[in-house]
Amino acid sequence: MKAMIFAAGLGTRLKPFTDHHPKALAEVNGLTLLEHNLKYLQRFGIYEVIVNVHHFAQQIEDILFENSEFDSNIIISDERDLLLDTGGGLKKAAWFFENEQNFVVMNVDVLTSLDLAKMIQHQDANDSVGTLAVMKRDSSRQFLFDEYMNLCGWANNKTNEQKISREVSWMQPLAFSGIQVLNTSVFSDCPFEGKFSIVDWYLHLAKKNVLKGYDHTGNIFIDVGKPESLEKAGYLF
């Protein structure tokens, strides 16, 4: 199985570090976030990884290609000319997943104890185009699922905006963990071009396809997007 790590973002929440470095190179206990997540994927047998880059891209390339200790086969998806957001970044990397059935995508700034093997098994067992890792936790934006954990919408809790893909009588809000297992069939149904969010892509897919949520509430999970989160992560990872 192959994977993609989103590492191209500007990391504005991690200023002032990201004024001079990409967020992927922020450190927790002496290891960069990028290395933490490469090692995380390796624990589940995933060694073929594509990493997108934009903000201080050369710094990421220098570390990847000067350090043979990573042990993964790493390909760069170059977004120096235009930051494509999560959806556009994944679509640009579609070629990397040719001949694969399912693959993993994750944000570089999340650390978790999620059992990825079980999540992959969940994807394999369901006739779905993808499985999204979600949790019961406070978040300003959440996905909405029906009683069968099928994606049916999205909500912004600050603005009360909702985007509904399928009308159902009951929906539960769950926070996205930035980790997903996708079937390569998603690439055959993407009406978006250029820069766009993966959330809009998922909401489009959910209109006609099954897109499952995988509730991993209870696992350790840290969105390492702020300096205080880095400090907290140091006690847990």
Q: What is the CATH T-level topology?
A: Spore Coat Polysaccharide Biosynthesis Protein SpsA, Chain A
As a percent range, the share of helical residues equals 10-25%
Strand content: 25-35%
> What is the overall number of helices?
6
Q: Roughly how many Å apart are the termini?
A: 25 Å
- SS content category: alpha/beta
General shape: globular
Tell me the domain tally: 1
The CATH superfamily turns out to be Spore Coat Polysaccharide Biosynthesis Protein SpsA, Chain A
Radius of gyration: 17 Å
Query: What's the rounded overall pLDDT mean?
Result: 94
pLDDT under 50 segments (min length 5)? Answer: none
Explain how this protein is built.
The two termini are 25 Å apart. Strands 1, 4, 5, 6, 8, 9, 10, 11, 12 and 13 form a 10-stranded mixed sheet that branches. By secondary structure, this protein is an alpha/beta fold. The mean pLDDT is 94. It has helices at residues 33-42, 57-66, 85-92, 116-125, 198-205, 227-236, and strands at 2-6, 27-28, 31-32, 48-53, 73-78, 102-107, 110-112, 130-135, 141-145, 151-156, 161-164, 172-183, 211-215, 221-223. It is built from 6 helices and 14 strands.
Task: Summarize this structure briefly.
The chain has helices at residues 33-42, 57-66, 85-92, 116-125, 198-205, 227-236; strands at residues 2-6, 27-28, 31-32, 48-53, 73-78, 102-107, 110-112, 130-135, 141-145, 151-156, 161-164, 172-183, 211-215, 221-223.
